[in-house]
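Entry type: protein chain
Record version: 2
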Amino acid sequence: MLRKLLIAFGIFEVGMPQPVIDACERIGLENPEEAQLRPQALWGARLEGMLFVWLLARRESGSRIANNLLAVAGIVLVVLPQPIIEFSQTLVYENTDDLELKPWVKPAARLLGALYLTVVYLSTTGDENSDEQSSETKTEAVTID
């Protein structure tokens, strides 16, 4: 179920990145109306969504490189969010000096890191329902013979 929700979120982020960015700005900025997005910001959000969908839809056959990169990003966000927050702001916004962060940006960044780690975990494990169905199918095949 969680896998399907994250895939749906990834598809939404690929198709409509602006509402996702707007929501993140409302969550993290005291003055979101002053934020001036760089042109590549929408593509960065789309890339994140594509990565989620690709890793989660492929399950255990996902890319080890992409999994490892997302895992490293997730761990860094959980353990040491401030440098990543600053770096991402310079990538996304043209006027980082004008933006005021809300006090819960660090906890929100840590939650994002946990989300990344969840995507990595889910992408490396098979879906429980399909595993159960697969074992039932194998059992039926054995009993039929």
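Comment: Helices lie at 2-15, 17-28, 41-58, 64-79, 81-92, 105-124, 128-144.
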